[in-house]
Amino acid sequence: MPLSRETEASRRGIPEATVARLPIYHRVLAHLAERGVATVSSEELAAASGVTSAKLRKDLSHLGSYGTRGVGYDTEYLVYQIARELGLSQDWRVVIVGVGNLGHALANYGGFASRGFRVVGLVDADPTRVGEKIPAGRDGETVEVSPLVELENVVLDGEASIGVIATPASAAQAVCDRLVAAGVTSILNFAPAVLSTPVGVDVRKVDLATELQILAFHEQRKHPEVRA
Amino acid sequence: MPLSRETEASRRGIPEATVARLPIYHRVLAHLAERGVATVSSEELAAASGVTSAKLRKDLSHLGSYGTRGVGYDTEYLVYQIARELGLSQDWRVVIVGVGNLGHALANYGGFASRGFRVVGLVDADPTRVGEKIPAGRDGETVEVSPLVELENVVLDGEASIGVIATPASAAQAVCDRLVAAGVTSILNFAPAVLSTPVGVDVRKVDLATELQILAFHEQRKHPEVRA
DNA sequence: AGATGTGAACCAATTCACAGCA
DNA sequence: TGCTGTGAATTGGTTCACATCT
């Protein structure tokens, strides 16, 4: 089938590095669009996104050919194409395990609801927290905290495919196993622990201490005081 | 100077990808050490860290030659060497701006104190939060929330070199500018905004919505339902 | 014998520079 | 003319496979 209509570059394999930047372009474009900007050049969009224009154009070329030579990109059209590629049209159902300060912060983080992520369940091991109603999403909705034994039911009832682990490190692997057994196939892990999962389950981790340690490493090199 | 004593591989330029993994090795090694494990092979340490043994050995080779052929690595010795390389012997003074749920979570996150990061200041724009005493670090110490106008003084008095931005996106760039002006040279940014800084200032960002969007992208590809 | 440390081969990502189109 | 889209060149990172040393 030599003449398939898929823009030659799209379908199959957008580089991982590109995928990681699409959400940024999406956010910047959304801002521009609601500010009424109709068109942007790669140069402008790149500057606003903190990347080089060559990188931006290469990234976008993986999605297809959505710009106009000599002009730039139509803001609305491009924001739509990126949203579609990222699957932001669907609404993703998320369960958060661990409702400490961090879990709380995640539950009522505005940025989730606005991008199609719905918190359908909250789970915590602490009995004193169970039953608490926590505001989640934008419109004053609340979600009640369920006990840890209910984890599987919360995932199933909520039809969640994404799990967020915001527990202490010691609990993380067990929680992960149970999320996966209940059908979760994507996990965002905030616990400082290495998780092992079956193939087919994606894990991303956010490690706060690690980020500071990376900064500290570079910071140290800026001040060549003790060169022992 | 042909015979400089620097293990040939060390000093100057540890690859960024390696730096990003050192904190993980450090944490895993620290666990092993306190569990009394005296020696580990690259195979074991790699498995516990979620990487391949070849990658681990290559990473460690950038620091120097700290293993013993036929045996493995001395746990205590290696944990020390990595700590030194990361600058974990110093204690890093951190100011957190924005004391909402996320800022709270960061302030009393145990993982910071235990790795040489000390929260020396908390700043918030909300007058109702100013004056609040927030537990930070391990040993029941508290830090009082200062008003936004005091930002510069908090940085200077605390001699902070690292700033954490946990404000809404709309405030992030202004806060960033003020942190930099006050002498901060490393910034960890949780606000969904692209920051611009002078050269010499490092910025790392942690974007919660972005992480979920990356997971959603891959999730979408797992279920080839709507192939439009 | 057994595991490290490392050159060489490979693969992914970025940058360059310009052909091609509006 | 001006800006996109993309091959080619380059840089950075990973994997392989084995010489080297305890």
Keywords:
homodimer, 228 residues, Arc Repressor Mutant, subunit A, Rossmann fold, 2 domains, 7-stranded mixed beta sheet, 42% helix, disordered N terminus, DNA-binding
Helix count of chain A equals 9
User: CATH first level of the largest domain in chain A: which class?
Assistant: Alpha Beta
Low-confidence stretches of chain A: 1-11
Under CATH, the homologous superfamily of the largest domain in chain A reads: NAD(P)-binding Rossmann-like Domain
Shape of chain A: globular
Estimate percent helicity of chain A.
Answer: 40-55%
**N- and C-termini, Cα separation of chain A:** 65 Å
CATH domain fold name of the largest domain in chain A: Rossmann fold
Quaternary structure: homodimer
Question: What average pLDDT do the residues of chain A reach?
Answer: 92
- Greatest interface (CB-CB under 8 A), with counts per chain: A-B, 60 and 60 residues
